[in-house]
Design a protein that fits this description.
The protein is mainly alpha-helical. It has one domain. It is built from four helices and two strands, in the order ββαααα. A hairpin with a 6-residue loop joins strand 1 and strand 2. The longest helix is centred in the middle third of the chain and has 14 residues.
Length: 89
C-alpha cells in the first residue's frame, strides 16, 4: 500500500494517507485517479481540515468518506461520527 503525505490546515508537518483512499475520493468526485487531480483533492482535504478543525488522519479519512456519500446518507454518517473528531486549537 502506497502512503502519500499531505499538508493540512495551518500546519507545516504533513500527514500520511493511503493512496487507495485518495484514489477512491478522487474517482468519485473528479472521475480521475489521485495523481491526475492531486491539487484539487489536496485543496478539498485542507478545506475539510479547516472546516472541522482537525488534522488527525483518521478524522480526515472519515470526512473524505462522508463526502463520497449522497446528501442524505452523508448527514446520517456525520451526525453519528462528528463527535469523534479530534479538534485542534
Amino acid at each position: 500500500m502506497k502512503i502519500i503525505s499531505i499538508n493540512l490546515a495551518r500546519r507545516t508537518d504533513s500527514k500520511k494517507f493511503p493512496q487507495s483512499t485518495l484514489d477512491a475520493y478522487s474517482l468519485k468526485k473528479y472521475k480521475t485517479l489521485y495523481q491526475a487531480s492531486k491539487t484539487k483533492v489536496n485543496a478539498d482535504m485542507k478545506a475539510l481540515s479547516i472546516k472541522y478543525q482537525t488534522i488527525v488522519p483518521k478524522d480526515i479519512t472519515m470526512l473524505l468518506l462522508a463526502e463520497m456519500l449522497s446528501s442524505q446518507k452523508k448527514k446520517i454518517y456525520l451526525d453519528t461520527h462528528l463527535k469523534e473528531i479530534t479538534k485542534f486549537i
